[in-house]
Amino acid sequence: MMAGPLTGIRVLDFTHALAGPFGTMIMTDLGAEVISVKQVDARDGTLGNGPFVNGRSTYRFSLDRGKKGIQIDLKKPEGLEVALRLADKSDVIAENFSVGAMERLGLGYEEVSKRNPRIIYASCTGFGQTGPYANLGALDIIVQAMSGLMSITGEADGRPMRVGASVGDTLGGTYLALGVLSALYERERSGVGQRLDVSMMESLMYNMENAIIRHSATGELPTRIGPRHPLITPFQTFETADGWMAIAGVRDWEAFCTVLGIEELTEDERFIRGPVRNEHHGDLEPILMEVFKKKPTAEWMELLKGITLTGPVNTIEQVMNDPHINERGAIATLPVPGPEERSVKVPIIPTRLSRTPAVVDTPAPAVGEHTRHILSSVLGMSLDEMEVLERDEVIRSTDEA
């Protein structure tokens, strides 16, 4: 197996919750050595959300796959010195604590970069390091609300809805990883690192480009319109005889109406052209809703080939068992160490490189699993030194190295 594209890059990972660990997970999948730092009092059963398998949080297991686990008491001077020495030997620091927390620990960018000018110091917070909201706490639902995303998500007559996945977190983590890769590339030219400031709220705004520019250009305020598109009709989901399907526009209106058995609509002035059809979507939608209920999804998809783009609304189970997904190898199976033979499935990174592919084949570490290994291999620390630190509860180790 070829080494991943980030092989040789070391990331010192102080992240927690979802956004930060998601970003460092991307770097791990791409081959970086990611050292996940946890406090000395952390235990496997107390970190992350359920469900739990073999006493491990599957939530954390997915995010920490392939990383190395180390435990340090960052509040003790000796622990701080260990962390700083590891930072000296690292390419990247990643953190998503509240603004100023790393500085209070003595691990802020200014301190670290004095010792290691090549360090790329990546921070991800709800609202960024500056501005009136910098010190506000934020979780995914908060940034989905404040970014405007919830105002355009949900049924027209319903309440604002959170997107089904934690996209504020995952997009924040994705842009954290993208920023790190950009800074690593720039460092090849300049020889020095830099500070990276990622806002979860701004990450969501960046992905709502159409809604923002539409409001800017027209003054129109985008609102909740359910599953349909604001500019194209039909472009939404429809219930079928055995489930739901999505339709994305119509290439040939006459052919579409013929397949659905509603040829009379080809002469209806409300529907014959795209822009007019969109104006009268409220008249067209109930007609189409009744027609699509008459046949199962697969049959409609076959009948509408070449006329419109269609797709089934899959459940999570259906997409995990989809033959295309399985042939592409888009889901990996990872063993969960413990008393029982158990495994879990995780999606692999969608970035496919032909020569240096990403690899997802290593489970998440137990808390402190690599403490001694990291301190001996990276810092050259002796066994006696490590035993003193462990006795003084500066570090905790569950490995044998």
Describe the model.
- The protein is of the alpha/beta class.
- 38% of the residues lie in helices and 15% in strands.
- The chain is built from 17 helices and 14 strands.
- The chain has a 7-stranded mixed β-sheet with strand order 8-7-6-1-2-5-14, sandwiched between helices. Strands 9-10-11 form a 3-stranded antiparallel β-sheet, covered by helices on one side.
- Helix 7 (167-190) packs across helix 8 (200-206).
- It starts with 9 loop residues before the first strand and ends in a 5-residue tail after the last strand.
Which structural class do you get from the secondary structure elements? alpha/beta
Please give the count of helices: 17
Question: Helix fraction?
Answer: 25-40%
Instruction: Give me the count of strands.
Output: 14
Strand order of the largest sheet: 8-7-6-1-2-5-14
Rg (C-alpha, Å): 26 Å
Quaternary structure of the protein? single chain
Mean pLDDT: 96
Major sheet characteristics: 7 strands, mixed
Q: Strand portion, in percent?
A: 15-25%
Q: Which key terms come to mind for this protein?
A:
single chain; 401 residues; seven-stranded mixed β-sheet; three-stranded antiparallel β-sheet; 14 strands
